[in-house]
Structure prediction request, 323 residues.
Amino acid sequence: MTAADSVAPLDLLRTMRLIREAELRLAQLFADGEVPGFIHLSVGQEGVAAGVCAALGPADTLASNHRGHGHALAKGLDLERFFLEIMGKAEGMCKGRGGSMHVADAAVGMLGANGIVGAGLPIAVGSALAHQVKKSGAVAAVFFGDGALAEGVMHESFNLASIWRLPVLFVCENNGWSEFSPTARQLAATPTALAESHKIIARSIDGNDVIAVHDAARALVSEIRSAGGPRFLECRTTRVRGHFEGDPQKYRDAVDAARSEDDPIGRLERRLAADGVPAADIKSAERDAIARVDAAVARARAGAAPTFDAALRDVYANTEARP
Prediction:
């Protein structure tokens, strides 16, 4: 299996725009009571999902975290089934059972989002082991926040991946906050130092520069395929919204227009304009994303609610009396 070809910047913009518009609509739907449970948005972090997933191939697998909408869409999940799932409908890819924090679709290699901090790490390591045993040439990638670096399972995952030289790409989305606490108060070492302590080659980049993310991810994935062993990529980015929707964010200053220069979408749009890309092509990325999201939401609203019996199926063991 060869390294993925470089993706055109305009295509990266389209992916980021789709993620942004989908999440802004989810925020509205959640506020209106149309989305059950909690949701955690990645607004401001779209460059990481788009850049990394564009470096992966169809056979590569991906494990995510609680802030995983962008990862799922960038890996190729069907947009309509995505909204059906998060809105709890029977036609969703997990039949409405998974919701926001457990979106999964094995058909595109999406192993699932996860509500437990750091829990995607061992899942990706296990998938990487399967790739290695099968000699498939595929890579397993995993997204996690800086807060996961304080979890013991991170060390276990790094250690196994390093010892067994597993084909796994560890991607840390360092948005500066471990839930409600600054990263500096949670970690005694830098993210790259933690990876390097396990003899894992590590890089740290500006996660709001989607082209830089894509180039770094392509290089690391290529190294994994050719030389074997894990790699670590820290993407420094910005979490614009709260830890969860409804978070009053009293623990930090408001993210305002003064930080707009860090927005990955705006940065790429300015770069494309400077490179001579027609304004109409740039604007079409936003217009097309909105149209696709409108259609997906309309389909999800028309979806069927799961029956109680169907919701319980395959969840609980048979409790009937046995002879």
Remarks:
- The two ends are 54 Å apart (CA to CA).
- The mean pLDDT is 88.
- The domain at 9-66+115-282 is CATH 3.40.50.970 (Rossmann fold).
- The beta strands are 61-63, 110-112, 140-145, 168-174, 177-178, 181-182, 201-206, 231-236.
